[in-house]
TrEMBL record:
UniProt domain Asparaginase/glutaminase C-terminal: residue ranges: 206-320
Signal peptide bounds: none
Name this protein carries in UniProt: Asparaginase
Active site residues according to the UniProt entry: T15, T94
The family this protein is said to belong to: Belongs to the asparaginase 1 family.
Upper classification of the organism: Bacteria, Pseudomonadati, Pseudomonadota, Gammaproteobacteria, Pseudomonadales
Entries under CDD domains matching the protein: L-asparaginase_I
InterPro entries registered for this protein in UniProt: Asp/glu_Ase-like_sf, Asparaginase/glutaminase-like, Asparaginase/glutaminase_AS1, Asparaginase/glutaminase_AS2, Asparaginase_C, L-asparaginase_C, L-asparaginase_I, L-asparaginase_N
Length: 330
């Protein structure tokens, strides 16, 4: 835990800086001037030194893509290793805030600075907005001291970057870290290929929920599309229609064909424990790797970081099964 002396505020867009247009709210530049003007009027402004950098283009976070994750990673690494910043505050839209927090948790492994993501449900300047409270609270955390790693701050809560999810679309306390069963083995050391300096490339990934009526043809179509990683959202503790021979065969062939298939629970407070039910054991036998208690956001971000680093499927599976930054183990 250490106080930050030279903070970079990285503004990516999102509701917090949006202004009204004829087509509705849209990201707008010039947020640094608005932020400084507001802090100048605050009776107790945080005293941390900061500068603001705008990403280009500014985004409504509904448009966030893997390439934007990589651009944020590059900007953060440059700010720390070249420009001497010892903390990063990333302003981001709420739709994909938890996805970006999770992805950056794995893209910035080994970077010894605190990175905090925040945003707001209402634009700064709107009546009764939560924007300035979230911004002021995050700045105060940097002043008082934070541990290294990626975290998400919202509505007074500081959440682990790879455990948070957006649970509400209107309330100010929109984010939480669902209570999930966490156990497993921590990685004893991280190889350089998983560190923050390792280049990544975009990867075709897919998320497929299990539901009554899921067909083998749907898995086959994803394989044909070229996906390298498939996140299967199973029932409860990791079960699915294990008596559907065609579906089981499609999953097995996909794994044999080089697709990493990971299983998580579709329950908000669930986790995969394959051995609890025979239906789960049969799923595992097709070649699925358990995501334990990881959220969708964490599992997707982890798949991206591993496969995007160029790991082969067997190596990626081994690292996926280990805890890298607190995503699997409490």
């Amino acid at each position: 835990m250490r106080a930050v002396k030279n903070l970079l505020v990285l503004y990516t867009g999102g509701t917090i800086g949006m202004l009204q247009t004829p087509h509705g709210l849209a990201p707008a530049g010039g947020f640094e001037a608005r932020m400084r003007a507001w802090l100048d009027t605050h009776p107790t402004p945080p005293r941390v030194h900061w500068r603001l950098q705008e990403m280009s283009p500014l985004l409504d976070s509904a448009n966030m893509q893997q390439a934007n994750w990589l651009a944020m990673q590059a900007a953060i690494v440059t700010a720390v290793t070249r420009d001497g910043h010892d903390g990063i505050l990333l302003l981001h839209g709420t739709d994909t805030l938890a996805y970006s927090a999770a992805a950056l948790s794995f893209l910035l492994l080994g970077l010894d600075v605190p990175v905090v993501l925040t945003g707001s449900m209402l634009p700064a300047g709107a009546p009764h907005s939560d924007a300035w409270d979230n911004l002021h609270g995050a700045l105060a955390l940097f002043e008082s001291g934070l541990q290294s790693g990626v975290q998400l701050y919202f509505a007074g809560q500081l959440l682990h970057g790879a455990r948070a999810s957006k649970l509400r679309s209107e309330a100010f306390d929109a984010f939480a870290a669902p209570a999930r069963h966490r156990e497993g083995s921590r990685a004893s050391a991280l190889p350089a290929i998983l560190g923050y300096a390792q280049p990544r490339v975009p990867v075709k990934l897919a998320v497929l929920p299990v539901y009554p009526g899921l067909q083998a043809e749907q898995v086959q179509a994803l394989v044909v599309s070229g996906v390298r990683g498939l996140l299967l959202e199973c029932y409860g503790s990791g079960t699915g229609p294990s008596e559907d021979a065609a579906l089981m065969q499609a999953l097995q062939k996909a794994r044999q064909g080089g697709v990493l298939i990971a299983a998580i629970s579709q329950c908000i407070e669930g986790s995969v424990l394959f051995d609890t039910y025979a239906a789960g054991s049969r799923l595992r036998e097709t070649g699925l790797v358990s995501g334990g208690g990881m959220t969708r956001e964490a599992a997707l971000g982890k798949l991206f970081a591993l496969l995007g680093a160029g790991l082969d499927i067997d190596t990626a599976e081994r690292w996926f099964a280990l805890d890298l930054c607190g995503e699997r183990v409490a």
